[in-house]
Amino acid sequence: EKDTVTILRPGAVTREMIAAELPAIEVRIDAALTVADEAPRAPGMKYTHYAPRVPLTVYVGTGTDVAAALREEVLRRTAAGERTAVIASNETLTVLCGIVPAAHTYNCGARGNHSAFAACLYDALRRFDDLPVTSLLAEGTGAVGLGLAIMNRLRKASGGRVIYV
């Protein structure tokens, strides 16, 4: 039987990296990262850690689907009198140009560049705390490799408000 290690909080050193370096050891992901009812076993993993002051909703799917869903949601919220800010990739923000004021956008780099996204995530979540916005939308990513850590932080920051498109 293989020895096992369990990742309690995903980060820049990914499951795949650990598995490549330690092939004789099984690398598992803690159930609390994937099962809603599981109690977290690591600090900073409860409830709405990293949460911005305004409600955050995360959209996950293919790039074009997420961009279209964000565009539709921003238009809906704007018509309802909300002031919405968006955290997204350069490609998605291009689709939202002219719909969301530039001051209410945060560019996390090229779509799929998880390193750039991870590097700016905390700043992005804090950026709009002192601006007159009523809601925050974010483009999520696939939960593989560094994307697992990004989505973990986004899921916690949003209180679980993740929409798959």
Structure description:
Helices cover 35% and strands 19% of the residues. By secondary structure, it is of the alpha/beta class. It has a five-stranded parallel β-sheet, with helices on both faces. Strands 1-2 form a two-stranded parallel sheet. Strand 1, helix 1 and strand 2 form a beta-alpha-beta unit. Helix 4 packs parallel to helix 5. The N and C termini lie far apart (40 Å). The model has no long low-confidence stretch (mean pLDDT 88).
Gross geometry:
elongated
Largest beta-sheet details: 5 strands, parallel
Strand arrangement in the largest pleated sheet? 5-4-6-3-7
The proportion of residues forming helix, as a percent range, comes to: 25-40%
Mean pLDDT, to the nearest integer, reads: 88
Reading the helices and strands in chain order gives EHEEHEHEHEHE
Task: List low-pLDDT spans.
Answer: none
Radius of gyration, CA atoms, in whole angstroms: 17 Å
Tell me the number of helical segments per DSSP (H or I, 4 or more residues long): 5
Structural class: alpha/beta
> Tally of extended strands?
7
N/C terminus separation: 40 Å
Strand content: 15-25%
